[in-house]
Amino acid sequence: MIYNSLHFVLLYPLLFLLYYAIPASYGKWRNVYLLVVSYLLYLQWKPVYALILLGVTFITYMAARICAKSSHPKSVMTIGVILALLPLLFFKYFNFVNDTVSALMSSMGVKYDLPGLNWAIPIGISFFTFQAIGYLWDVYYKRIEPERDFLVYALFISFFPSILSGPINKASLVIPQIKSMRRYFDYPKAVQGLKWLLWGMLMKVVVADRVALYVDTVLPNYTNYTGLSCFVASLLYTIQIYADFGGYSLMAIGVGKTLGFELTENFRRPYLAFSVTDFWRRWHISLSTWLKDYIYIPLGGSRCSKIRNYWNIFVTFLVSGVWHGANWTFIVWGIMHGLIQIVEKMTGQQKCDYGTFGRTIKIIITFLLVNFAWIFFRMPTLSDACGVIGRIFDYRLPLTLYLPENTNLVLILMGVTMLTAKDLLDEFKPANRLFFESRSKLVRWCSYVVVLVLIMLTGVFGADQFIYANF
């Protein structure tokens, strides 16, 4: 379900009321209801792809059960992981591998003509596949017991708030909540969920989709704009992807909270990080945790020689780049993040002990490094990414800046300022109870109304989905 759609606004209150109409004592039927709703919402996209979701769920469920009893658990786990990965590898990476092989063969004068696939990628496949594989590995490493109730496990994999674009939840967090006797209605939790839902919506439609109007004008046609315009567009894309994905995650967690569930935190003011290492403790936290637990640590983590540790970091972020998409731009983006973190570790810059001024400088440098890497993430080809960077650093171009019409310019500045101010307050003045968290009921409700009015009057509702739904 796309949270920034009229469909969500009309449908979710009904889903919410029907859920709480089921008595808390009938917890199993609540789970059946959520499972049916999750699959019905998934079927709205492309019904046949629900079979892939069900297939990955069944494979990892059975593999975990067998793994726990087998005398050869590693073999069972390996087979389960491979089978679960096959749909992801086929749908997401077939064309990439095919095109790469074709280009390589052509460069050697060999004719290679295997047609690519024109099928759409099943929505959310990267998220639910990694979530299922994480569960299987946790069972293999005996961190959790295999779940016997297939209904419970199927709901964990397909839970509708997070299946589209995460967060990638751990079984140890969500499955106990599914199995517990949840209260009939947890008022404080629901109120907090609605607050997050409201602020996440503002991040998406007031900030992300507004700055996207500038980004999508300049970057696809970068040859027609000055280096300064390209640089500003890259900065705004850095804001866009955070407001888009961070806003979605906040809405997903908020929806889960209104239903009585605690989902994994996914963002913690990432652009106030003082190093790229710190950035990954704040950005897409569920993915970075997954990579640490299932790639970095099994490779040896930091409990090995320095050279091996650097290699482990490199491989982990190479995997991160590949996970994000079947394109060399994502691979380069992942490699850049890995190499920067290796340099930070070699020089001790992953820590921050330079005082307030030094920390501020490090935050600015980190932001610019992350922004530079996002150019590769945003552009469709390496050639285009290098073209944008080339224009940014081309001193021969005039220092003129493309400006949108006045209304859009004011709304962009307003949205970015609001998001920046809130992150700064949350980071450096967390004890202050302002706006949504004010002790004054009048201030709280005025804040709700102002944000709701801003969403209704200035929000951009034409965007189809969230950026990370493509991954």
Helix-strand string: HHHHHHHHHHHHHHHHHH
The number of helical runs is 18
Separation of the first and last Cα atoms = 16 Å
Q: What is the gyration radius calculated from CA atoms?
A: 23 Å
Q: Regions with pLDDT < 50 over 5+ consecutive residues?
A: none
Strand composition percent? under 5%
How helical, in percent, are the residues? 55-70%
Q: Note the quaternary state here.
A: single chain
Q: Can you offer a commentary on this structure?
A:
- This protein has 471 residues and is mainly alpha-helical.
- It has helices at 6-21, 27-43, 50-69, 73-107, 125-140, 150-158, 160-163, 171-179, 187-218, 227-258, 276-279, 285-299, 306-324, 328-347, 355-378, 382-392, 406-428, 441-458.
- Helix 2 packs across helix 6, helix 9 (187-218) packs across helix 17 (406-428) and helix 10 packs across helix 15.
- The longest helix has 35 residues, at 73-107.
- The mean pLDDT is 89.
Features:
single chain; 471 residues; mainly alpha; 18 helices; 0% strand; globular
Indicate the topology.
Blueprint: H1 6-21, H2 27-43, H3 50-69, H4 73-107, H5 125-140, H6 150-158, H7 160-163, H8 171-179, H9 187-218, H10 227-258, H11 276-279, H12 285-299, H13 306-324, H14 328-347, H15 355-378, H16 382-392, H17 406-428, H18 441-458
Helix pairs in contact: 2-6, 3-4, 3-5, 3-6, 4-5, 6-8, 9-10, 9-17, 9-18, 10-15, 10-16, 12-13, 13-14, 14-15, 15-16
